[in-house]
């Protein structure tokens, strides 16, 4: 589906930006790059900036006009660093990602069109696009580096694509992986920790059993909001054990910090 979305770079001056755009695309799972009349391509600089994405550069289609680049496209989204005078349907990058994805999912061919480093897209080129996309940058310094602008848009395409597949986002995946790796403590493990903690605090004289105030409930609140893992719990239990030994004068180990 992402293969239906092509990135079109118009009249790019710096080959490094072409390489940077290719890398951004590959990172986000896109592969169709179309170059309209590039100033310097192929080039070593483009390959260097593409890093591991030189396959995208090799497969890039080089054409003479924007018209040729847009052959077969059902939806054309043109980017602009500035608000143009002509009123046009304007999307932000998120809306662009969602729209591009929805159309591509239905089998449409979609183009994301980017302009020249120094002059952007001409009004004529912008009028070939159904929608304009503006990254809401600071109006006092609105123009992003070309490859950076490509990165923002293809990232949003990916996020929309992930959402469309009802896949968890990267953050959610990382959380799941982290939980599987670390295994959170259970309520009963937490209870025996509190018993241990209370015992240690009493023995070192921090908690007065005659006048406990709300110390233990405050500590429960503190530890309870931390999603403690089993490994972390082992560290805490180790600290309590050593603290108790020290308080009882049994301490003879040094530097036991490799828990
Ligand atoms: N001086 C040019 C700047 C072009 S920057 C101008 O005013 O148009 C090169 C390309 O990067 C732009 O044509 C566009 O494709 C993209 N780009 C840079 N900043 C952008 C922004 N804030 N929103 C959308 N696209 C942007």
From TrEMBL:
Keyword Metal-binding belongs to the record: no
EC number: 2.1.1.200
Predominant subcellular localization, coarse grouping: cytoplasm
GO cellular component: cytosol
Residue ranges constituting the tRNA/rRNA methyltransferase SpoU type domain according to the UniProt record: 5-155
Pfam families documented for this protein: SpoU_methylase
InterPro entries the record matches: Alpha/beta_knot_MTases, RNA_MeTrfase_TrmJ/LasT, SpoU_MeTrfase, tRNA_m1G_MTases_N
Transmembrane spans: none
GO biological process terms on file: tRNA nucleoside ribose methylation
Catalytic activity: uridine(32) in tRNA + S-adenosyl-L-methionine = 2'-O-methyluridine(32) in tRNA + S-adenosyl-L-homocysteine + H(+); cytidine(32) in tRNA + S-adenosyl-L-methionine = 2'-O-methylcytidine(32) in tRNA + S-adenosyl-L-homocysteine + H(+)
Keywords: Cytoplasm, Methyltransferase, S-adenosyl-L-methionine, Transferase, tRNA processing
Gene Ontology MF: a single term: RNA binding
Cell compartments where the protein resides: Cytoplasm
Family the UniProt entry places it in: Belongs to the class IV-like SAM-binding methyltransferase superfamily. RNA methyltransferase TrmH family.
Function field: Catalyzes the formation of 2'O-methylated cytidine (Cm32) or 2'O-methylated uridine (Um32) at position 32 in tRNA.
Complex formation: Homodimer.
NCBIfam families cross-referenced by the UniProt entry: PRK15114.1 (NF011694), rRNA_methyl_1 (TIGR00050)
Protein name per Swiss-Prot or TrEMBL: tRNA (cytidine/uridine-2'-O-)-methyltransferase TrmJ
Species classification: Bacteria, Pseudomonadati, Pseudomonadota, Gammaproteobacteria, Pseudomonadales
Name of the gene encoding the protein in the UniProt record: trmJ
């Amino acid at each position: 589906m992402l293969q239906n979305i092509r990135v079109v770079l118009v009249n790019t001056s710096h080959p490094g930006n072409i390489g940077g755009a290719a890398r951004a695309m590959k990172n986000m799972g896109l592969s169709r790059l179309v170059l309209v009349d590039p100033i310097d391509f192929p080039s070593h600089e483009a390959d260097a900036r593409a890093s591991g994405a030189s396959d995208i550069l090799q497969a890039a289609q080089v054409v003479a006009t924007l018209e040729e680049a847009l052959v077969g496209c059902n939806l054309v989204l043109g980017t602009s660093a500035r608000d143009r005078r002509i009123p046009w349907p304007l999307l932000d990058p998120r809306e662009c990602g969602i729209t591009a994805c929805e159309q591509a999912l239905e089998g449409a061919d979609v183009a994301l069109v980017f302009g020249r480093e120094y002059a952007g897209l001409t009004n004529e080129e912008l009028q070939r696009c159904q929608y304009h996309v503006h990254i809401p940058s600071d109006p006092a310094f609105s123009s992003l580096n070309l490859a950076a602008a490509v990165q923002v848009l293809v990232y949003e395409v990916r996020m929309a694509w992930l959402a469309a597949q009802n896949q968890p986002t990267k953050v959610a995946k990382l959380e799941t992986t982290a939980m599987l790796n670390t295994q959170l403590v259970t309520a009963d493990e937490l209870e025996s920790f509190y018993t241990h903690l209370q015992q240690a605090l009493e023995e070192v004289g921090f908690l007065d059993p005659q006048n406990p105030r709300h110390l233990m409930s405050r500590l429960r609140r503190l530890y309870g909001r931390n999603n403690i893992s089993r490994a972390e719990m082992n560290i805490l239990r180790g600290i309590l054990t050593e603290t108790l030994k020290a308080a009882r004068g049994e301490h003879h180990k040094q530097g036991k910090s490799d828990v």
